[in-house]
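Re: 2-acetamido-2-deoxy-beta-D-glucopyranose structure - here you go.
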Amino acid sequence: MHSLSKFSFISLASALAVQAAEVTENWTLAAKTIAPDGFSRSAALINGQYPGPLLTANKGDSVVVNLNNQLADPSMRQSTSVHWHGIFQPRNAFNDGPSFVTQCPIAPNQTYQYQLVLGQQTGTFWYHSHLSTQYVDGLRGPLVIYDPDDPHKGLYDVDDATTVITLSDWYHPTALVAENAWFAGGPEPVPDSGLINAAGRFQGGPAVDRTRINVTKGLRYRFRIISVSAEGFFEFAISNHSMTVIESDGIETQPYVVDSIPVLPGQRYSVVVNANQTVENYWISATQTVLGATTNANNSNFNGTDTFAVLHYAGASSAEPTAPQPTGLPAGGIEFQEFNLKPLINPGAPGGSAPPDQIFNFTFAPGSANGDIWTINNSQYKPPSVPTLLNILANGATNDSSFGPNENTFTLQSNAIIEVSFIGGTGHAFHLHGHAFDVIQSASGGGPNFVDPPRRDVVASGGTVDQPVRIRFRTDNPGPWIVHCHIDWHLEAGLAAVFAESPTDIQNGPQSVQPNEAWQQLCGIYNALDPSLQ
Ligand SMILES: *[C@@H]1O[C@H](CO)[C@@H](O)[C@H](O)[C@H]1NC(C)=O
Ligand SMILES: *[C@@H]1O[C@H](CO)[C@@H](O)[C@H](O)[C@H]1NC(C)=O
Ligand SMILES: *[C@@H]1O[C@H](CO)[C@@H](O)[C@H](O)[C@H]1NC(C)=O
Ligand SMILES: *[C@@H]1O[C@H](CO)[C@@H](O)[C@H](O)[C@H]1NC(C)=O
Ligand SMILES: *[C@@H]1O[C@H](CO)[C@@H](O)[C@H](O)[C@H]1NC(C)=O
Ligand SMILES: *[C@@H]1O[C@H](CO)[C@@H](O)[C@H](O)[C@H]1NC(C)=O
Ligand SMILES: *[C@@H]1O[C@H](CO)[C@@H](O)[C@H](O)[C@H]1NC(C)=O
Ligand SMILES: *[C@@H]1O[C@H](CO)[C@@H](O)[C@H](O)[C@H]1NC(C)=O
Ligand SMILES: *[C@@H]1O[C@H](CO)[C@@H](O)[C@H](O)[C@H]1NC(C)=O
Ligand SMILES: *[C@@H]1O[C@H](CO)[C@@H](O)[C@H](O)[C@H]1NC(C)=O
Ligand SMILES: [Cu+2]
């Protein structure tokens, strides 16, 4: 009887949850001077906030964002477009966001309405500018889709706006200034500091107050850790507290207990932290590395070991912790290994260990001494002037030769198993739009796994030439999906390709993509702009 009534209650809760709400946000994008690490600079911000406002929805909701572009600072790009990182967007590729893949940028003084199709996705995501390197300038923020029936609900007590933790690298020059110096022969830009939420410090800078995360002894917290980084890799740990990983990139995982986690640009983890230690203040550390190091000869402001926040127990003093500042994995701690991540639901690579239908071997390498060119199979990605999606819909592009040589665009068959090998060095983070994928060979080792490999949407590069990182996914979502390094400077330097998934299904039929009138007008308005406003 008891279990029956409990079941009825859960069914009722599910039924209520199915009544999808519409979430509407009005966002104004504008330049504003901020100093999250004590250095004042102009930034491109949504509603004046850094990180951008937390966008939340419940499973099954529809989300509408009215984005009003009021950028008018010539030190930054003034047009824009926004990508909703990790959201698959079925039949909705025209709202995916990457400039010149799925849309033309939104001109200054224009409002564009992004309509998101969340489907049944839940978990931790983020949004960011996808025009050139504009997200470096501040247009990056968290996106969380809550699941009222979360299978892990019993593992934590608190999961709200105060438990979302963003990690960002931060730069003093604007992205345009930084990359122009790079393209003129200088070194690749190196961040000045690392931020946890809205605060950080740079070497020689002021002692900005550390971000504080409040907890109450006896409660268990679901921290949603999001790297909104453009370059730096973070190693996340909390002194005296282990963490139980329950989600990677929007995919629930089997609980996995670790003491520190590497978080690469674009990656997200949910971890449960039990506030069961002595009432005190504890260091939260997010050691930042660039090219594997915590210092860099090309920027003396950068001190990757100085990225801290405070885990504050109610009742403790409001001072910083008195314990020594840790860096990364504590002695004797359990180190996270990606190959240990196991999806909770429906594990297993599509097709198991049977041969895939299409294989892509992507060799990637720098194409210049200072790394301002990156190539896939010796071809530098350069955005076309006609967005890939428009080319497919308006010009009937359906095969590889429909696209220019620097578009690195490969057509995929429908309902096929695709395997991609990333053959090159460590230090990169590859992201695919439109899908999560199974990492059948992880850079962390572990050997090929077809049974229960990690499933996510950003993967570390590495491995060897004989055993490179390999991913698999099934083509069930027609659209042009960019696959690129999430180090934003590398994307800008050309480390990208586009999978034109089932072009004929994009054009016609039950999965076709049908952009609205506002989208149709974007290219005309953008192309008419003075180049200084693009
Ligand atoms: C967004 O703006 C519209 C039109 O100005 C207004 O009707 C609506 O109430 C606003 N919505 C929110 C959530 O602020
Ligand atoms: C945007 O509007 C402002 C205020 O009306 C105007 O000064 C500016 O020139 C406009 N910018 C563009 C690109 O139209
Ligand atoms: C600094 O920049 C130079 C020129 O691009 C590069 O060769 C060198 O590796 C960079 N040093 C570091 C530590 O990144
Ligand atoms: C943490 O708690 C203090 C007071 O106990 C409060 O002033 C502060 O705003 C809280 N911080 C956050 C991030 O909630
Ligand atoms: C945290 O752990 C360290 C080393 O394990 C220990 O010395 C210290 O007493 C602990 N701190 C608290 C407040 O329990
Ligand atoms: C604190 O919680 C962790 C994670 O649940 C557990 O492993 C550990 O034994 C607990 N420690 C204490 C002192 O209760
Ligand atoms: C970098 O920051 C750490 C942590 O605050 C500090 O211990 C270290 O001395 C700093 N590095 C340099 C070169 O000053
Ligand atoms: C890329 O180059 C590799 C090595 O030459 C080759 O095996 C592979 O087929 C090429 N991939 C594509 C997508 O052209
Ligand atoms: C990809 O590389 C693997 C391993 O070297 C090779 O067996 C396969 O034929 C290659 N396939 C393509 C399409 O390049
Ligand atoms: C590829 O598509 C183009 C149109 O973009 C068409 O002209 C050409 O015939 C097609 N080639 C093949 C082999 O289908
Ligand atoms: Cu890269």
